[in-house]
Amino acid sequence: MSKVKVAIIGLGSWGECHLEAFRSLPQVEVVAICDVREELVRQLGEAYSIPDVYTNADELLNRDDVDLVSVVTYENSHYDPTVKALQSGKHVLVEKPVATNVRESIAMWQTAKEHGRLLVPGHVLRFDPQYAEARHMLQSGRLGKPVSIYLRRARPRALFETYQRTHTVFELTVNDLDIAIWYAGSEVKSVKAYGRSVMGADVPDLVWACLEFANGALAVIENHWLTPNEANIIMADSVEVVAEQGIIGFEVQHAGLQTWSGQGRDTSALHIHLNRNGRVSGALKEELGYLCDCILSGEDPVQTSIGDAIQGIKVAEAIIESIRTGREIKL
Ligand SMILES: NC(=O)c1ccc[n+]([C@@H]2O[C@H](COP(=O)([O-])OP(=O)(O)OC[C@H]3O[C@@H](n4cnc5c(N)ncnc54)[C@H](O)[C@@H]3O)[C@@H](O)[C@H]2O)c1
Q1: Is the CB of 34 under 6 A from ligand 1?
Q2: Ligand 1: does its nearest atom lie under 6 Å from the Cβ of 12?
């Protein structure tokens, strides 16, 4: 295999980023894309010169010339295309949350094992230089073991109009759960969580979760969709890890490019995905390039972990249960 032949299912806002990032990789050929929205997928097929476009994922998955499928559909519709792709012999990158319940996430993993294919969760933060460097420092042992992990992720209110389609824990918190589990290097033992619905939706727009790990580490995760739109701050995220002999952390909120104009302030998140003058950069490109290199070389993609992602889904369910009952949940 000289190039990895890739297909993408789900070409919404993040799926188009996948398309741009894959097309920028020299070791990849994007052979097909699929979205149930016919006009959208045809337009993208023409704009990016993709040979084959589909509105039915089953038809795409019948092809035997695809090595890797990226599943970038809605949060609660990853299961069907993922399992069918694995059964038809393709490797799969499935976006976060891999599933919105533990049962589906375990069934996906079992299918991957039965068919000897890779199942990689789309936890892109593992490829963001700041998150990755913090993990590298913790792994080096220079700071000792992590004892306290604080992770904050805040988004503007306007985005909640779209993403309240999924519980906040599966939309925002799963990103931080994957990082907390990766940094702690241990399983979560118990969870106590709180949720508030400030804007009145059915799902909370603010979540606090306190986790205790089997190795004694603690984590606090704070997520909300309450940044005023007028503040024009896309990401207001923080990380602080207190270890036995030191502290490591960073802020996304006050870093990066800002534009001040007659319309107020604007901030840009350039580190995840950027396409300028046909040149793509960012953590997404790193993640997809790493996976494709592993497929070509036959190496295990050890920077990713479907086991950690599934543990994240278990913890996410426990957080929802703790918010509902007001009780501490043991795992
Ligand atoms: N890792 C990240 O940083 C990150 C960022 C954004 C989104 N995401 C994840 O990516 C996924 C997609 O998010 P989005 O913001 O692009 O959503 P979106 O609503 O913009 O796009 C989803 C697309 O999937 C298509 N679709 C749904 N079911 C389909 C099916 N069965 N077959 C073919 N097409 C189908 C829809 O028509 C739509 O175009 C979600 O799981 C989301 O959580 C991850």
Answers
A1: yes
A2: yes
CB 319 within 8 A of CB 209: yes
Whether ligand 1 lies within 6 angstroms of the CB of 54 is answered as no
Residue 33: per-residue pLDDT: 98
- pLDDT bucket at 179, cuts 50 / 70 / 90: very high
Please say whether the beta carbons of 209 and 173 come within 8 A: yes
Distance 145 CA to ligand 1 centre (A): 37
Residue 278 confidence (pLDDT): 85
Identify the structural domains of the chain with CATH numbers, from first to last.
4-122 (3.40.50.720), 126-277+312-330 (3.30.360.10)
Q: Distance between CA 63 and CA 129 in Å, rounded?
A: 36
Pocket test residue of 35, 80, 170 for ligand 1, highest count of atoms within 8 A of CB: 35
Segment holding 195, helix H or strand E: strand 188-196
**Going by DSSP bridges, is the β-strand pair 218-227/119-122 parallel, antiparallel, or unpaired?**
unpaired
Backbone angles phi, psi at 98, to 5 degrees: -55, -35
CB 77 near ligand 1, within 6 Å:
yes
pLDDT higher than threshold 80 for residue 6: yes
> How many angstroms separate the alpha carbon of residue 37 from the centre of ligand 1?
12
Report pTM.
0.96
One-letter identity of residue 144: G
- Tens of pLDDT along 114-173? 999 999 999 999 999 999 999 999 999 999 999 999 999 999 999 999 999 999 999 999
Confidence of residue 258 (pLDDT cuts 50, 70, 90): confident
Give me ligand 1 centre to Cα 77, in Å: 9
Write out the two tokens for 50: 């993709």
